[in-house]
Amino acid sequence: MAFNSSSIYNSSKARNFFKRFLRQSRNPSYSPRTAVPSLYPLLDFRPINPRREPICLNIRKISSYCTRVPHNLKNCTSSSSSSKGSVFAKNFSGTATDPLKSGAKMTVAAAPCIKDGSLMANGKVVLTGVPSNVAVYPVSDGLSSSSSPSAAFLGASSSIPSSRHVFGLGVLEESKFVCLFRHKIWWMIPRFGSSGSDIPLETQLLLLEVREKSAVCDDISSGQSANNTFYVLLLPVLEGQFRATLQGTMANELEFCVESGDAHVQTTQVSEAVFINSGDNPFELIKESFEILEKQKRTFAHINHKKKPTHLDWFGWCTWDAFYKDVNPQGIKEGLESFLEGGCPPKFLIIDDGWQDTFNEFQKDGEPFIEGSQFATRLSDIKENSKFKVSESGGSSTNLKELIHHIKENYGLKYVYMWHALAGYWGGVLASSEALKKYNPKLAYPVQSPGKLGNIRDIAMDSLEKYGVGVIDPQKVYDFYNDMHGYLASSGVDGVKVDVQNLLETLGAGYGGRVSITRQYHEALDKSVEKNFVDNNLICCMCHNSDSIFSSKNSATARASEDFMPNEPTFQTLHIASVSFNSLLLGEVVVPDWDMFHSNHDTAEFHGAARALGGCPVYVSDKPGKHDFKILRKLVLPDGSILRARYSGRPTRDCLFIDPVMDGKSLLKIWNLNKLTGVVGVFNCQGSLSRVPKNKTIEVSLGVLQCEIYTVSPIKVFKENVDFAPIGLIKMYNSGGAIEDCTFGDSIRIKARGSGLFGAFSSKKPRCCKVDKKDEDFTYSSENGLLTVNLQSESSFKEIEFVY
User: Fold this and answer.
1) What Enzyme Commission number(s) does the record list for this chain (predicted)?
2) What is the dihedral of CA 47, 53, 56, 62, to 10 degrees?
3) Do the beta carbons of residue 216 and residue 226 sit within 8 Å?
4) HEC profile of 477-505
5) HSE-up (13 A, CA, CB side) for residue 694
6) By three-state DSSP, how is residue 522 classified?
7) E-strand stretches of 716-785
8) What share of the chain is helix, strand, coil (3-state, %, to 5)?
């Protein structure tokens, strides 16, 4: 919804539905080797009586194929497999080929070309006003046996050599699309629109829906289908030392940017910067395109050609949210003990940030803390820090090796992973460290891409631009990884989670550019993991740039979205939506990791249900003793294994071009397949904070015994440039009842009662927040303006002050 008016509403209860649709075949000769039960029962939940029926759920075009079945809801019976209920659809006939097997083929489409100044795909106009310096280049003849005639590359030329070019491709109008773009340097999220002006900077996938002029009949059972709809995929890729992205202009022009990240690496022409393909099935189209690019580029491997880590099929625990950097051996033991007592012990453990030996020269005892300086912390040794070298009673001592041996023996762990950053630590490595001098580290100052700076800035990168990064010589980085991984393996460690990966894109100057340094580091990492750990036990994280994606030859799993943030109430729905849409791209290269969540959390059922069908690992970051075993037992079998679906959970076809987070009306459906059955989850991911125009009507649909409470707060202007509206205790039904007074002066002062998470809308981020005249931490979302502060004291009334 547009932020352009005068009131706020806040939903205190997210409506989420987790419904499974399964198909049983009547055919007694049905064989799982030759067919998969159809995941396309044309179930259509439409409210005949809005007071009796649920919110409209149109379960159509769920998968990437269609099987004709009777449109008869009498064939549905219901059962209970979650707290929100579920539906079990049975007695439908028909089978269908698995759409994601390599044998599945799309309808052959016409080759892309430029005709009369228009870019054509499948004989239809995609872009108009194509500049004369843009050309279409065919996929090489050597791949003709496996490539599609509908695929090609787009390139362009300039008379001036440069390390960064922005080329126009043409005008895009009146064509529904979904794109994936990097809103932050580390992560992608989806965006939806219909013209070039809607396409943001740093777009890395663009999928267009192209329809014939004749209307598409919605009643598939009448004999028509969606054959008059096809899809066009544009993927900006790597070409040599250059990396490409897409972006739009206010004039609806679609552009592509190519950059090397090194002023000395220049070009005047690219011919394989943007890949284009088309077809009548979006899922097959994306899969086929990545298979073509895998053979054409030879810089990455498709997920089907990689060895998947075995931890994916076991329940896990990560220490991050449980302890943050205060992780220690005693806390790890206490956490594992509490899982064991509850009858659901994890089988893999990630010891996250906090175990390494680091040093920060910008933080000194007795001096005030400087915000951002924490990211300048650098690695000083490859071994564990003093917390993991503990002297025990009787004069004995323990270390990392003894800890891992103990927890595997006593708590049944199969795998232990350790966290580290791709550059060693957030600030790289300490150049003055005697233990690390042999890797030739040098202090370098990151340079961010202009395209990246056009979206959301990141405090970590802004800080590192100031403090610098200790960069390991790319020629020595394999030795660094091999030494560290060899030590960890000798201590009983089974794998690593490697974080902060996109930092490398800012450090390419002097090393041949961002693509070159990224590729060198990834090749060294893959080689070390293969040597020191079995089963390709590597989790990649903060790696959503095309430099990393198209340099991924071995790594087989990666985090699929920004962190699960337990204290960010409005982030929970965006998290689920982002992961599912990001999996359209990431799922062709890695197994998307949906991140940890908390089993004892307001949104635990929502997150747990999503991970049940995500085809992803399932792991939590609960604090010791803070668990909901009822939810965990819906995800984890008694032996600690999980029921992981076969593919990456992605939006159903009819959800691809709608905004399930902010359009205020659409539900998100995510589909997947098991060996013999299919699974679909339906989620209400609509944001809980929106700015509503004055006198605007909001339509709300509710099912039986479902309710929502909205807090409406008028927006007032503070000092002529800040729009502000208090909301109240956002986890309470009557949120606004906690607000006693709100006054504007030199600052904004609110008198509130109660304790818990207090929320407000603010068009700008405050400089600081005080609660009862004491500085208090707060969170702020620049995307929707939600400002939150945790009121912790037990006093009846509190004074909150926001200073701008």
Assistant:
1) 2.4.1.82
2) -110
3) yes
4) HHHHHHHHHHHHHHCCCCEEEEECHHHHH
5) 5
6) helix
7) 716-718, 722-729, 739-744, 748-753, 756-762, 768-771, 774-775, 778-780
8) 20, 30, 45
Rounded to an integer, what distance in angstroms lies between the CA atom of residue 311 and that of residue 484? 21
Whether the Cβ atoms of residue 376 and residue 463 lie closer than 8 Å to each other = yes
**Both tokens assigned to 439:** 């890797």
Place of tokens 């984890």: 636
Alpha carbon distance 195, 751 (integer Å):
46
Whose CA is closest to 449, among 259, 307, 308? Answer: 259
Q: What is the pLDDT of residues 74-99, one digit of tens each?
A: 222 222 233 333 222 222 222 334 55
Mean pLDDT of 532-557: 97
Strand ranges inside 590-645, DSSP E: 591-593, 619-620
Residue 137 bridge partners (DSSP): 153
Q: Which two tokens stand for residue 763?
A: 């068009």
- Burial, 247: exposed, middle or buried (Cβ in 10 Å; 0-12, 13-18, 19+)? buried
Q: What's the rounded mean pLDDT across residues 400-414?
A: 96
Could you tell me the pTM of the whole model? Answer: 0.79
Q: Where are the beta strands (DSSP E) in 12-99?
A: 36-37, 43-45, 57-59, 76-79, 86-89, 95-96
Question: Which residues make Cβ contacts (< 8 Å) with residue 365, sequence separation at least 6?
Answer: none
Place of tokens 């054409």: 296
Closest CA to 672 of 577, 573, 583: 583
Q: What was the pLDDT predicted at 380? A: 98
Distance CA 518, CA 504 (A): 6
pLDDT tens by residue, 372-381? 999 999 999 9
Instruction: Quote the pLDDT of residue 729.
Output: 86
pLDDT at 698: 65
